[in-house]
Design brief:
By secondary structure, the chain is an alpha+beta fold. The protein has three domains: about 60 residues, no CATH class; about 150 residues, Glucose Permease (Domain IIA) (Distorted Sandwich); about 45 residues, Membrane-bound Lytic Murein Transglycosylase D, Chain A (Roll), CATH 3.10.350.10. It is about 20% helix and about 25% strand. It is built from six helices and 21 strands. The protein is elongated, with a radius of gyration of 33 Å. The protein starts with a helix and ends with a strand. About 25% of the residues are buried.
Length: about 350
C-alpha cells in the first residue's frame, strides 16, 4: 500500500515536470517600449538625411518607361490617394493610364500633370495663355535619347510636304501639311500622353494633341478616324488614327504641329521631311523661336483686304470682335472698306 502511494506521488511530480518542459517550447513574447524615445527619433532623422533624393529622382526620370517630371517632386510630402491640389503629384511608374474626368489615374494613384507645366485639359489646344512678351525662358529640350529607350518616329510612312509653316492666304499657317491617302496610318512622333481627342468642324477636323515627356506637344489634324483615347500613354511610333480630309481641308493630308506651352513653331526647325530625318537631338527654346508670334501680336493696326471681315480679323490677331468695334467706334453691321485701317489692339 505504501509503495502504491509513493508511486502515485512520484508520477504526479514527473507529470508536472513534463508539463513545464513542454510549456517552455512556446516562450512568451514581451514587447518592450524603447528606453530612450529621443534616441530612436534621432536615429530616424539620421536615416532620412542619408536618403539620396536626387539620385532617386534621376533614376526614375531615366530608367522607367513612364512619365518624366522636371525634378520638382517633393518626396517628403505625403498625400492621400485622391488629391485636389493641381500643383502636386503622386508618382508611380507604369505604362497603364486611363482618363478619369480631367485627371489621370496611374495604377489607382491620382495625379495631375505637374510634370507638364501643371496644366491638363482634354478639350482645348492652347491651355497655357502664355503672353510672348513675357516669355523669358531659354532652355534646351532633349527630343530623344536612345540610351534610355526614348525614340522618335515620323508621323507618316511616306513624306511629301504640301504646305509649309508660315503666312498663307492672309493668315498664319501654324503647322506643316504632309500629303497622304485617306486611311493612311498616323503615328505618335515621340513618347507621351494623348491630351486632346476632338473634332473641329471649321479647322482641324478630327485631331489629336499629344503631350510629350520633354514638355513639347504635337498636333495631328484632318484625320478620318480616331484610334487612341484621351489619357492613353503612347510610345514613339504608336498608331494614333487614320489620315483624311476632315474639317477645313482642301484634300487628304496631315496637318502636323509642334508646340511649346501652347505656342506653335516651325516643325522644320527639327525635321527634314524630304530626307525623313530628325535634324537635331536637342532643341533650344527661346523667344526667337516664336518671333512670328511676337511680330503678329505686336501689330496694332490692320489694313483691310478683299475678303476680310471682323471675325477673320479678330481670329488673326487673337482678339475679340467687340474689342475691334469698341476701339474703332463701329458696330458689327459696319461695312468694311478695302484699304481701311482698323485698330486691333
Amino acid at each position: 500500500m505504501r509503495s502504491l502511494i509513493l508511486k502515485s506521488i512520484l508520477g504526479f511530480i514527473l507529470s508536472i515536470g513534463l508539463f513545464q518542459a513542454n510549456a517552455q517550447v512556446f516562450p512568451k513574447i514581451i514587447k518592450k517600449n524603447p528606453t530612450n524615445p529621443a534616441q530612436a527619433q534621432e536615429r530616424r532623422n539620421i536615416e532620412l538625411r542619408e536618403f539620396d533624393q536626387e539620385g532617386y529622382l534621376r533614376t526614375i526620370s531615366t530608367q522607367t518607361d513612364s512619365l518624366l517630371f522636371q525634378n520638382n517632386v517633393n518626396l517628403a510630402r505625403i498625400r492621400s490617394i485622391i488629391s485636389e491640389d493641381p500643383f502636386s503629384l503622386n508618382w508611380a511608374p507604369t505604362n497603364q493610364l486611363i482618363q478619369i474626368s480631367e485627371q489621370i489615374q496611374i495604377d489607382s494613384i491620382w495625379i495631375t500633370a505637374f510634370e507638364y507645366f501643371s496644366n491638363w485639359d482634354s478639350k482645348k489646344v492652347d491651355i497655357y495663355n502664355l503672353d510672348i512678351k513675357n516669355f523669358q525662358d531659354s532652355l534646351v529640350l532633349k527630343l530623344y535619347d536612345q540610351k534610355y529607350g526614348q525614340h522618335w518616329k515620323m508621323p507618316l510612312d511616306d513624306l511629301l510636304v504640301n504646305s509649309r509653316f508660315g503666312p498663307r492666304w492672309g493668315r498664319m499657317h501654324s503647322g506643316t501639311d504632309l500629303d497622304l491617302n485617306t486611311g493612311d496610318p498616323i503615328y505618335s512622333a515621340f513618347d507621351g500622353i494623348v491630351r486632346v481627342k476632338s473634332y473641329d468642324r471649321y479647322g482641324y477636323g478630327y485631331y489629336y494633341v499629344v503631350r510629350h515627356k520633354n514638355g513639347l506637344e504635337t498636333l495631328y489634324g484632318h484625320l478620318s478616324k480616331h484610334v487612341a483615347e484621351v489619357g492613353q500613354e503612347v510610345k514613339a511610333g504608336d498608331y494614333l488614327g487614320k489620315g483624311g480630309s476632315t474639317g477645313r481641308s482642301t484634300g487628304p493630308h496631315l496637318h502636323y504641329e509642334l508646340r511649346y506651352k501652347g505656342l506653335a513653331f516651325d516643325p522644320e526647325t527639327v525635321y527634314d521631311f524630304e530626307k525623313g530625318e530628325l535634324t537635331k537631338q536637342e532643341l533650344l527654346i527661346n523667344k526667337q523661336l516664336f518671333g512670328h508670334i511676337a511680330k503678329a501680336r505686336a501689330a496694332a493696326y490692320h489694313r483691310v483686304k478683299r475678303g476680310d471681315n471682323l471675325g477673320s480679323i479678330a481670329r488673326r490677331y487673337g482678339v475679340s470682335v467687340s474689342q475691334i468695334t469698341r476701339l474703332n467706334g463701329i458696330s458689327t453691321r459696319t461695312i468694311l472698306r478695302i484699304g481701311q485701317n482698323l485698330r486691333v489692339k
